[in-house]
Input
Amino acid sequence: MIVRVHPASGVPLYLQIEAQVKQAIAAQAVREDDPLPPVRKLATELRVNPNTVARAYQNLERDGIIRTVQGGGCYVNGGAPRLLKPEKIRRLKPLAAQLAVEARQLMLPREDTLRLLDDSIKELERQP
Amino acid sequence: MSDLAIETHALTKHYGNLAALERVNLHIERGSVYGFLGRNGAGKTTAIRILAGLARPTAGSAHILGIEAGPDRIAILQRTGFVIDKMLLPYMTGRELLRFNRGFYPAWSDTQAKRYADALEIPMDRKFRKLSHGNKTKLCLLLALAQNPELLVLDEPTAGLDPVVTDQLLRILVEDFANDGRTILMSSHHLSEVEKIADWVGILDHGHLLLEARLDDIRDRYRRIRVAGEHAPANSPEILTTSASEGVTEYVLCAGEEKFVADLRNNGATVLEVLPMNLSEIFLELAGKENRNVPVETVA
Output
């Protein structure tokens, strides 16, 4: 798994690391029970503060995406993240808002916008 | 034992009429990497020189590793690696300087010294005065790192270093110091570098500490908000700056984004964008010359 961070983007680095681990799991670059690089090793590779990496891992663990084994590093969990529906909705809301704003600015009709989203979901479901 | 590696209390330094530092309270936690930012002449080096016992404060106090700066200088120097003036004995070579320095420091490591000299690519057999500016800086860094100290205080450590050596230095700082829970205070003008390695930042301007906070908290809170119209009404103590032009009003907010945006929408304003800000943008808002609390009317 290759992680890259972009300090100039303004997005907190721990969020960037979290997002990339999630992407790597979604793209099956790392699979269930695969180990993640240890905090210190990843921090050294990225030249970032180890607390930043630790915070990303803690958040991923809290969301049930990875698990920490006492003294033995972090591993990828299988299955869907253990989040309650309101929390899932809270996280996706900004993305939905952004889609709505862009669509309004381009004056794309409501039905087309909804169809666009629907198509994207179907496309993901088609993948094995 | 205090969990602060460095603490200053109302630290003040006047040079004649010039106030280099004005009641500065720094809090640098043990195990943190603290980015000390400010423009030229903001007072960073003055503060660092006081920590090293090279200057006396006009008022206030500074404690390093629980020891008061000034009277007990030796005890501090034994446990802290300082890189400040980048000046060493001019007629000695790197190798001689290592031999000269090692006896002063209880935790000195010859193995690490060798590793760092290789990683930073320092010509060890040339006299200090014959070295280029970058190589002089590297040699000063080498002596501080080889001390194997629990605290590093570095004044612009990467100034004059090429990108490859800078990267090697950052690697050493993360791998051997930050990973090990040791504390680093570093001043720098390279904000993208600070943004990666630091977990705390302090911004100094004209001798005043404008901001001291965890970097993640700053990034979570500061937002640039763009609103349609040049006369969008907004009032909040959290607005840092406001500017308007070409049909758009832009607010820089230091906290409370959600409520601010909700209030704007309730007042019928169209919020175009809410953007995160990187450290360099935040720095320019705080210490820059433009947009300093300029009311909308005069800018429009």
Notes: Residues 7-76 of chain A form a domain with the Arc Repressor Mutant, subunit A fold (CATH 1.10.10.10). The interface with chain B takes residues 5, 7-14, 40, 43-44, 46-52, 55, 101 of chain A (CB under 8 Å). The longest strand of chain A covers residues 66-69.
